[in-house]
Each structure stands twice: as C-alpha cells, then as structure tokens.
Amino acid sequence: MWNFKNCALIVAHPDDETLWAGGTVLINCKSNWEIISLCRKSDRDRNPKFFVALKELNAIGDIGDLDDGVEQRSIGISEVGQVILSLLKKNEYDLIITHSIKGEYFRHKRHEETGKAVLSLMEKEKLVAQELWMFAYEDGGKKYYPRAIDNADMIMELPEKIRNKKFKIITDIYGFSFESWEAKTTPKNEAFWCFKSANDVRRKLISRREKL
Q1: Phi and psi for 49 in degrees, rounded to 5?
Q2: Which of 150, 145, 140, 134 minimizes the C-alpha distance to 192?
Q3: What is the DSSP pairing of strand 59-66 with strand 92-98?
Q4: Alpha helix (H) ranges present in the chain?
Q5: What are the residue boundaries of the structural domains of the chain, listed by start?
Q6: 134: helix, coil or strand?
Q7: Virtual CA dihedral for 111, 114, 117, 119, nearest 10 degrees?
Q8: What is the phi-psi region of residue 91: left when phi exceeds 0, alpha when psi lies from -120 to 50, beta otherwise?
Q9: pLDDT tens for residues 82-136?
Q10: What is the CATH number of domain 6-207?
Q11: pTM exceeds cut of 0.70
Q12: Residue 164 to residue 78: CA distance in whole angstroms
C-alpha cells in the first residue's frame, strides 16, 4: 500500500526518471513529486525536454550540470552530494528514490555515484526519509537490455495505459526513435530495492556480500 505523500526522485540524467520510475510516479500521481537530474543543464536539447517530461509526470524539479562527458571521469561523492542538496527544495521526504549503487546497466559511473551520494547524505542525516528505494535492474553485463531483477524487494507491474504513457514520454517528448536503446530499454515493469534507513542498506548489502 502506498503511504508516501512527499517524494523525491533523484537521477543522474534527464530521461532516467521516466525510464526507471516513470510508471511509479504516474500511478501515484496524488503524491507530491520532486524530481531532480544532476546532469545536462547546459544541454540545449535535453534540458527543456526534461521540464516538459516533469509536466507529464505532474512533478516539480530542477537540473544540475555535473560533467557527463563520454570519458566518464570519476566525480567525488561529496561533490555529487553537494549538487543534490543544491537542487532539492528541502531535505526531508517520506520517500526518496534513486539509482542503485550498482547502477542499472553495466558500469555507468554517474548512476552509481548518484546512488552512493544519496546514501552518504542519508548516513550523515543531511537527507532524511522514511524509506529509501533504489532502482533494481540489470543487463547481464551488457548481454540484454536492462530489466527488473527477479528478486527485487518491489516489482511494480505497470498497467498498459501507464506503460504507453511512459513510452510516449521517451519517444514523443525526449524524441528517441522506436529503434533507439532508450525506447527498447524502457522497462514494462519497475523494480526497486526498498530500505527503511541507510543502515538498512548496508545490512542488506553485507548479507548479499556486496560492497559499496
């Protein structure tokens, strides 16, 4: 049962919000959604499309300009965290959703850094939430398009109407062709790891023998 009124969705790029959690936002449209993207503020194409997408998702939000070059240089978690705090309108929510610290497909540093930065902010109590959800997708090491992890804590089966609206945001608003990676990737079901606290994240990761 959905009991979250004030929700933050924190992503690395414009379109991540729709790809990985757009259906969840659309289904729970009566909640107050704040969505931020950490990259592409200077992108004259993607920036305005992000704000059109937010309107379709009935959300408010903002966009930052972290480096997103093809070389994928590492950015310090502290720097990423500072950008997150500068973009959010407040620091306390009922639910925060963000990237997995493992990313959604093979080794995308910005996704991983975003998840790690959110976790660090919560550990330091600079961000507060009743629950933290992280995207739960994998691509088999680039063997197939990202898909919901079978044993994720939450797998949300999207109604056809919601799936279609999500797909239209990707193709009609962001402008990706039907043959693009983004369009073919767009998950029909959305999946999340669900945590009650930052400590809960670490306990579960330790039990799975994973490391940050």
Answers
A1: -65, -35
A2: 134
A3: unpaired
A4: 16-27, 46-56, 77-87, 109-123, 160-168, 181-185, 198-207
A5: 6-207
A6: strand
A7: -80
A8: alpha
A9: 999 999 999 999 999 999 998 888 778 999 999 999 999 999 999 999 999 999 9
A10: 3.40.50.10320
A11: yes
A12: 38
